[in-house]
Amino acid sequence: MIEKINQLKSRIAALTASSAEEVEQLRVQYLSKKGEISLLFNDFRSVPAESKREVGQLLNELKTLATERIASLRQSLLDKEEADFETSLDLTRTATPLPQGTRHPLSLVKAEMLDIFARMGFTIADGPEVEDDWHVFSSLNFADDHPARDMQDTFFISRNPADVLLRTHTSSVQTRTMETAKPPIRIVCPGRVYRNEAISARAHCFFHQIEGLYIDKNVSFADLRQVLLTFARQMFGAETRIRLRPSYFPFTEPSAEMDISCNLCGGKGCGFCKHTGWVEILGCGMVDPNVLEACGIDSGTYTGYAFGMGIERITNLKYRVKDLRMFSENDVRFLDEFVAAK
Ligand code: DAH
Fold this sequence. Notes:
19% strand, seven-stranded mixed sheet, two-stranded antiparallel ribbon, alpha+beta, binds 3,4-dihydroxyphenylalanine
């Protein structure tokens, strides 16, 4: 028995392990209930009484030795792991670059549009998205029974009285500005607008517009045309042509819609422009004297022009986005396509 104990002692003193699993195996092998040392303790019963003292002491020493040896193997593995981690740290490595994201295509196009108008002397005006009937409809000469006032077309916030609503166009900022500022007024008003439309690839319940307004003495339709031609050429290229078609808006008289020569085929005719060579981009006209008067501006002294266009529409023409829903879904695969345009 004493010999066995001594053999075990020298084996245990020489134990090595290269992983935590190996240490655990050693613990089971020597120290668990059925381990080699426990078995020796079981045999202790058959040791003759006169040797019990000596053997008992040796057994206890053996157990302590095994416990300490295994604990120290475990500790040295942990120390090694920590040291390896520290030497594997490369503090000279540059940090992992964080993705910076891209600007939204609508923001890019809006900024470009505002820039063009800023160079022509327009300043930016702002107004609320939650509006009232006066600023969105009545002041702009909409008849009482105009369909836009219908619940089908406009989101009303209060039904009775049907006065608080989400603006359906940025023309409301015209009124807000004219009510407070004195001519000359030369503003562009970018913003979000809302319409009660079923969402599809071609229509959305919200989108963005830029409204323009110029009020001064002797403002003519020729001035309007020149500003819009300059805008179209700076936005879509110097070879761009425009055409104005008579139209109707309650707040302008005369009114027109403007087309640009198709920027895909250069006006020759293609699938995109339905083989007409033209694509529509905006509505415009001379501010109706009723609107000037409603806003406290003397229509005998002052005249003005206004125009309004959709930012999504202009963005589509520039970047050929086929589905309007892409603009509000925040799919990074779509947004990342505009990284070069930062
Ligand atoms: N407010 C019109 C719309 O939402 C766009 C518009 C047309 C604005 C003619 C104007 C304008 O200022 O003169 O469809």
